[in-house]
Automatic annotation (TrEMBL):
<dbReference type="InterPro" id="IPR023214">
    <property type="entry name" value="HAD_sf"/>
</dbReference>
<protein>
    <submittedName>
        <fullName>HAD family hydrolase</fullName>
    </submittedName>
</protein>
<dbReference type="Pfam" id="PF13344">
    <property type="entry name" value="Hydrolase_6"/>
</dbReference>
<keyword id="KW-0378">Hydrolase</keyword>
<dbReference type="InterPro" id="IPR006356">
    <property type="entry name" value="HAD-SF_hydro_IIA_hyp3"/>
</dbReference>
<dbReference type="Pfam" id="PF13242">
    <property type="entry name" value="Hydrolase_like"/>
</dbReference>
<dbReference type="InterPro" id="IPR006357">
    <property type="entry name" value="HAD-SF_hydro_IIA"/>
</dbReference>
<dbReference type="GO" id="GO:0016791">
    <property type="term" value="F:phosphatase activity"/>
</dbReference>
<dbReference type="InterPro" id="IPR036412">
    <property type="entry name" value="HAD-like_sf"/>
</dbReference>
<dbReference type="GO" id="GO:0005737">
    <property type="term" value="C:cytoplasm"/>
</dbReference>
Amino acid sequence: MASTLPLAGFSEAADRFDLCLCDVWGVVHNGVAAYREAVAALMRMRQHGISVILVTNAPRPSEVIIGQLDGFSVPREAWDGIVTSGDVCRSLIRARAGEPMFRLGPDRDLPLIAGLDVRETGPEAAAYVLCTGLFDDEKDTAATYAELLAGFAARGLPLICANPDLVVERGGRIIPCAGSVALAYEEIGGQVIYAGKPHRPIYEAALAVAEEKRGAPIAVDRICAVGDAIRTDIAGAEGFGAAGIMVLAGIHAQDLMEASWEERHGWFGRQTHRPAYAMPHLVW
């Protein structure tokens, strides 16, 4: 396996790419404020002729993410399009129109099902489960729902995971996501259907948006995917055939930010997937 190449800035590799699939939470913002140098880098990419599609495991439609980015004062000139796991998830829910569904997650994710033919019900009457997160991600963990998940597994219910991320950084704290619940469900034999990264459908959707915007096909070897999570961003890039670019200051910051490059290479070698490039923060 080739070594990960350190980058001082994205510009060092820019000529290799026509499309950047960029993660949002952990790269563009931390849930509280935008990273200004990252935003500037995305704008420079577009000026350089590189299309930028923001690809996020947020369990909400892309319109909601646009509003969030507006709230963080991220200019719309920083991206060409946005694709969310929520967008992919809505297509999975449409395929189960009218079936009784138990929704596991906070009410802030209700836009995900707005306008769809869904019939929310209690755990006992559900035909499938939609997991968008934890009811209270400040206090709950996947273990909180052990009894609930065991009941679903015993009945063979499929669980649609709207956000495959295990954790996310929120203002410097690590918060559990829907992916941690889905993993716990798989571990007891439950069936999980994933909507977002690292699974292929969200990358195919993002590529389709980019090619429509450019009006021309884009070769996979001209695509990079920037993110801060090995399990989703880097694994997904590798699975799609794109070059993974790791931002070190995200969810793996405790292992990587204070380490030397030699120590970082050792850490990458112990992971299931290795990025092609790495940099502390996304900068131009």
